[in-house]
UniProtKB/TrEMBL annotation:
This is O-succinylbenzoate synthase. GO terms for molecular function: metal ion binding; racemase and epimerase activity. Keywords: Isomerase, Metal-binding. Belongs to the mandelate racemase/muconate lactonizing enzyme family. The keyword Metal-binding applies. One of its GO terms (biological process) is amino acid catabolic process. Pfam families: MR_MLE_C (PF13378), MR_MLE_N (PF02746). SUPFAM superfamilies: Enolase C-terminal domain-like (SSF51604), Enolase N-terminal domain-like (SSF54826). Residues 138-230 form the Mandelate racemase/muconate lactonizing enzyme C-terminal domain. It comes from the Bacteria.
Length: 344
């Protein structure tokens, strides 16, 4: 018999984040806690973001309540069997991710090993991450870029498709020099022709890659064929068959959107099978979501900097183990996901 509870947590951002899909000021997440008859606890996180992924928070909360009843009635089922039972009731990846995460966390705590060590015996000790700059003003963006250099990051990611992108990127490049890679994230703000024109213009500052310049597999493939910059798929990865379509040089995976840790390892294998490069990011997830992504990235041996250095954007204390040091986040050494406390 499992004891199950679901709690809502509000995480205010220090500074509003402006993107092509809107402005984010507060992040709402759901934390699922599972306690077995053995007393071992497992926690998982559901982090829908409707303006970004189109999934309403109330729908995920309702799904988790249904899952909670299924989990409470479970007897003798494996972790995979429990996830399948929940999926049969409501197939909602953002909610399933919380169940999957909590079960992996509990399994690791029960065995006294980190989740990454459950996934592979060759997990990396840490994961490279990028800094993210959301400032609208070129001067503010330059100051943030200089801070990223000082903090030891190798890659800076900038939201584009809002405001004067070229002026901000020129200011950022002036601040970081040639030492750091510059990555753009358009969140599908452009049409194909707009994307080609904008990327050709912005490429003058030197770009590592552009995430989701357009939405859709055919659209991404066309942009990729027409520009001299690597293209990454992000939001489009949620479409059926998109991950294995070979339409992008790299694909950004997310634990919440993918349905959990187990599902992400399968997706990463498919991406590599068709010649793509997987890396992970968050949609400003909480500590449990970030920890889960770090464990997966370490187990997969991901070398592309991941978008997981986002916890310091919140105006609340966060687990020090999940904050970047010299552009990397170490795998939490504790059992399970390695995250404790009220937010984890």
């Amino acid at each position: 018999m499992l004891d199950v509870s679901v709690d809502t947590v509000e995480l205010p951002l220090r500074t509003p984040l402006r993107t092509a899909w809107g402005t984010l000021r507060t992040r709402s997440i759901l934390v699922l806690t599972i306690v077995g008859s053995d007393g071992v606890v497992g926690r998982g996180e559901a982090a829908p973001l409707e303006p970004y992924d189109g999934v309403p928070f109330p729908a995920v909360a309702a799904a988790l309540e249904q899952y909670a009843e299924i989990l409470r009635r479970s007897r003798g089922r494996s972790g995979a069997g429990l996830v399948d039972a929940c999926r049969d009731a409501v197939d909602l990846p953002q909610a399933l991710a919380a169940v999957d995460m909590a079960l992996w966390d509990r399994a690791g705590r029960r065995e006294g090993r980190p989740v990454a060590a459950l996934l592979t015996d060759r997990a990396a000790a840490s994961v490279p991450v990028n800094a993210t700059i959301g400032a609208d003003d070129p001067d503010a963006a330059a100051r943030a870029a200089a801070a990223a250099v000082e903090a030891g990051f190798d890659t800076v990611k900038v939201k584009v498709g809002v405001g004067d992108d070229l002026a901000r990127l020129q200011a950022i490049r002036a601040a970081i020099g040639d030492r750091l890679a510059l990555r753009l994230d358009a969140n599908g703000a452009w049409s194909v022709d707009e994307a080609v024109a904008r990327i050709e213009e912005l490429a003058t500052v030197g770009l590592e890659l552009v995430e989701e310049p357009v939405h859709g597999v055919p659209q991404l493939r066309e942009v990729r064929e027409r520009v001299p910059v690597r293209i990454a798929m992000d939001e489009t990865a949620a479409l059926p068959g998109a991950v294995g379509a070979g339409a992008a040089d790299a694909i950004c995976l997310k634990v919440s959107r993918g349905g959990g840790i187990g599902a992400l390892t399968v997706q990463a294998a498919l991406i590599r099978a068709v010649g793509g490069e997987p890396y992970l990011a968050s949609t400003y997830d909480g500590p449990l979501g970030i920890a889960a992504a770090v464990h997966v990235a370490a187990a997969l041996g991901v070398e592309t900097p991941c978008g997981l250095a986002t916890l310091d954007a919140f105006d609340l204390p966060m687990p020090a183990a999940l904050l970047p040091v010299d552009g990397r986040i170490a795998v939490p050494p504790g059992p399970g996901l390695g995250v404790d406390g009220p937010l984890g």
